[in-house]
Design brief:
about 75% helix, about 350 residues, single chain
Length: about 350
């Protein structure tokens, strides 16, 4: 088994010394509470860091300040943490299961399934309560359809899974475009805002439906860390070591789908988090999923909190999904160029 595991190719992160890794991990861990407090301290209302600290330490604050912190800013900050953690962990799991560094949580048609349901619901002018519920159901049904298409003779082919995801996404994207073209301007605006990924105006009701599945799935994902380490090997080697690939792929697909569907339910389609975060974590932690999975969740929360704070402070309250794409795209290009240069040396 030791010889088999040695076949796993090291990533750039393994070149770091142990002390460098420890320092970076501590910085990431410390960034989460700092950014959370920052998120609670910024906004249109005149409620700053002092009022936030008074709130947490039980000091006297006005009822308006308490309302702003507790019922307006805190749900938004927690939504960012939950969404980022869910997308980061689901992206890491899918990249490990598919052995594809370009895999993302939306590869399985999840984004298209959620998007088409939301656009249809906006076009039908249904109550706002049903929008996140419809997004969740659409995401789960689309992912289930992709796995059903890729399942053949008690085997799930990675190639068929990826191709099925592309095909289903294409069909659902076309249906989504048809409904957008047939909608009026107001409904198009509402649909595009949601499809861009937004944390604006999030309330405790938006989290009530999703926080339990996210926490349970994050805990469950850690149980598959060792199996994902084996899945980095080729199929024959991993099966010879006792790994059931079909069970692993079904369970990882299920957990990743639930995590992503819940994230979509909270904040819409937030791009690039699930794709880029695992790459950033592997630079620090290497390829061991015992470290990659929890750090991907932590880093996802940190990045999304930072992107939302940046959007509220300097970028005219842009949807957070646009901010993550603007930041994530250049960084991902940098990672690709860095890998190409290292391979050419």
């Amino acid at each position: 088994m030791g010889q088999a595991l040695s076949k796993i190719k090291p990533q750039e992160g393994v070149l770091m010394t142990a002390s460098m890794r420890s320092i970076l991990v501590l910085i990431i861990i410390a960034s989460l509470p700092c950014l959370f407090l920052t998120s609670l301290s910024i906004g249109d209302a005149d409620v700053g860091p002092q009022q936030v600290l008074n709130y947490f330490f039980g000091e006297k604050i006005t009822s308006i300040d308490r309302l702003v912190i507790q019922d307006i800013r805190m749900p938004r900050a927690l939504a960012a943490v939950l969404t980022g953690a869910a997308l980061g962990i689901s992206g890491a799991m899918l990249q490990g299961m598919l052995r594809n560094p370009l895999a993302s949580p939306f590869l399985l048609g999840i984004s298209s399934g959620a998007g088409v349901c939301v656009v249809i619901l906006f076009a039908l002018n249904v109550a706002a309560f049903w929008i996140p519920v419809g997004a969740w159901l659409g995401a789960v049904v689309a992912a289930a359809l992709v796995f059903f298409i890729s399942y053949q003779r008690q085997h799930i082919s990675l190639e068929r899974l990826i191709l099925a995801g592309v095909a289903v996404s294409s069909v659902l994207g076309s249906i989504q475009a048809i409904f957008l073209l047939r909608s009026d301007d107001t409904r198009i605006q509402n649909s595009l805002t949601w499809l861009s990924g937004t944390l604006a105006a999030r309330t405790w009701d938006d989290l009530a439906f999703t926080w339990v599945p996210i926490v349970v799935c994050i805990a469950a994902s850690l149980a598959f860390a060792k199996q994902l380490n084996l899945a980095l090997l080729d199929d024959d080697t991993s099966q010879s070591l006792g790994l059931s690939l079909i069970k692993l792929r079904l369970m990882v697909g299920f957990i990743a789908t639930i995590l992503t569907a819940c994230a979509v339910c909270i904040s819409g389609l937030v791009g690039f988090v699930g794709l880029v975060i695992p790459h950033m974590v592997r630079l620090v932690c290497g390829t061991n999923f015992m470290y990659v999975l929890p750090m991907s969740g932590l880093m996802g929360g940190v990045v999304l909190l930072g992107a939302d704070a940046l959007a509220r402070t300097y970028l005219w309250e842009l949807p957070v999904g646009l901010v993550t794409s603007l930041i994530g795209s250049p960084f991902f290009i940098y990672l690709l160029q860095r890998r190409r240069l290292r391979q050419s040396m």
